[in-house]
Amino acid sequence: MNVEPQQYNVSFYVQGNYPRNQANLTTFTVSLRSNLTGEVFASSTIANVSVPFIDSVQLFTTLHPNRTAPNSNNTFVVSFDGEAIRGQTYYFSLFSLMPETFKGTPNGLRKDIAEAFYEMKPSFLRFPGGNNLEGFSPQTRWKWNETLGPLIDRPGRPGNWGYYTTQGLGLMEYLMWSEDMGVERVLAVYSGFSLDIWGVSGPSYPLDRMPEVLQEALDEIEFCMGNITSKWGSVRASLGHPEPFDIKFVEIGNEDWFSSTYPYRWKFMYEGLKAAYPNITYISTAYNEASASYGYNITIPPGVLWDTHHYEEPSFFVRGFDFYDNWQETTNQPGAQVFLGEFSALQIDTPSHVVNFSFPEEKHIFYPRLVSALAEGVYLLGLERNPNVCKLASYAPSLQDFNWYNWTPDMIGFDADPSHTVRSASYWQQWLFAHYCGTQSLPITNSEGDYNPLFWGATLDEGKNCVYLKIINILGDSVPLTVNIPQPYK
C-alpha cells in the first residue's frame, strides 16, 4: 500500500471470547510500516479498551505520516500485548484504513482515480454497472437495499467477475459519487433476469412474479427521489442525506438480448415505472439483437433510449461512422433514441471481422492503443453528428487493477501506488470529446475527396460562441487540407 503525508482514518471491530466480568483493559497500537525495513511511518494507540464478550466493539483512530514512503511495499498493522491477555482470544473483523477521499466524502472514492474521472469532465454516471446488476442468479444479484447502512451490516455477495464483493460501494456511495462530480444519474434497475455462469440463458422471473420485481425498483427510486415523509425517503434521510437525489434516466435491466423473456418483462416494468414516474427517461436494454435467436423485435416507445453495447475491432467503429445517419427511418423506430452504454476496441482487425471473446493473445488488445482511440473517436463523431438520435455514450470498462483483473482493455489502470495510475489513449480520446462538446451539430461541406482516411465533424458551443472542429486521420500519412469557417465564430 502507498503511504503519503495525509490523514488516514482507521477503524476495526474486536470481540473477546471470555465472560464480561473477567474482561480487562487492552491497549491497541495501529501503525503503517515498511515490509522491507520495518520503518514505522505513523503510529497511534487506542488505550484502555474493555473488549466485550457478547458483541463486538468498533474502535477508531487516525494516523498522520509525516513523509512519503519510498515504495508501496508497506503494511497496516494492529498490535497489542499478547502476554497481557494470555488465555483469551480476540476476534477481529472489518479493518478499514481510509486515506483522504475525493471531496472528503466518508467511505468515498480514492482521490487519484476519482480525479482522473472528474478531470475527464463526465456528464453522467451509469450504476451499479451491467453484469453486476444481474448476478448469476436471482439470489446472488445486486440487491440495492442490502448495500445501505453500516459496512458491517452489508452481507456482500458472490460477484460476476471471479471475486466476492463486499458491497462497500453501495447505492448511497454511487449517489454521492454522482453528487460529488456534479453529473446526471443513469440508474439501472433489476428487471427479473440473471445471468448463468456463462453469461447467457439465465433464469427469468415469470410474469406472475413480476409485481415484486417492479415494487423493488419503485422502492429504489423512492429511496433516491422520495421526500423524507416517504418510507424509503426517510431511510435516505437517516443515512445523512435528507435532500432527494434527482434521477433523470432509469435503465430497465442490462443486456437483455441474452434473454427470451424481455418482451413481457420490459412491458411490465416500463408501464409500471412510467405510471409512477412519468418524467423519467427510460432505457431499454434490448431491441432487435435477439431476433435471430428468439424471434422478437421490441418496439421502443418514442422518447425511450435503446442501450447498445459494442466490443469490437477498430475497423467496426470506422465502418460505423455513418451508422446512425438514418437510424430511426431504417429501423422504423420513430422517436426512439440511442444510448451507447458500453464500447471499446477489443481485438485487432481480422479477416473475418468476428470478435473472439476467449481473448486469444495474438488478437486481443490488452491495453487501449492509439488505433483504438482513433477508431473509437471516428464512431463517436458519427454519434455527435446525429444528436437527434444519439443521446448518451460511455466507454467500458472504466477501471483495471493491474494486480488482479478479469477483462481488458480498460480506460484507467491503477495499483496501490497512485503514481502508477495510467490514463490510457482511450481516456484521452474521451477527455478531448468531453472538453470540446458543443450544443449543436453543424453541417460541413467538403469540396474535395470523401471520408477515409480523414473523418470529421463540427459542433457549435452556443454559450461560448465557438466552433469545435474534430478531424481524425486513421492512417499514418499526412493529409493536406484547408478549413473555411464562414461565420465569425471563435
Describe the structure.
By secondary structure, this protein is of the alpha/beta class. The protein has helices at residues 111-120, 131-134, 171-181, 210-225, 231-238, 262-276, 291-294, 314-319, 327-330, 370-384, 425-435; strands at residues 8-16, 25-34, 40-50, 57-63, 74-79, 90-98, 124-127, 157-158, 164-165, 184-189, 249-252, 281-284, 305-312, 337-345, 390-393, 399-401, 412-414, 422-423, 440-442, 454-461, 466-473.
Number of domains: 2
Low-confidence segments, given as residue ranges, are none
Q: Compute the CA-based radius of gyration.
A: 26 Å
Helix content: 10-25%
Q: Per CATH, what is the topology of the largest domain?
A: TIM Barrel
What's the CATH class of the largest domain, please?
Answer: Alpha Beta
How many beta-strand segments?
21
Based on secondary structure, the structural category is alpha/beta
Largest sheet: 7 strands, parallel
What's the gist of this structure?
By secondary structure, the protein is of the alpha/beta class. The chain contains eleven helices and 21 strands. The chain folds into two domains: 8-98; 102-438, TIM Barrel (Alpha-Beta Barrel), CATH 3.20.20.
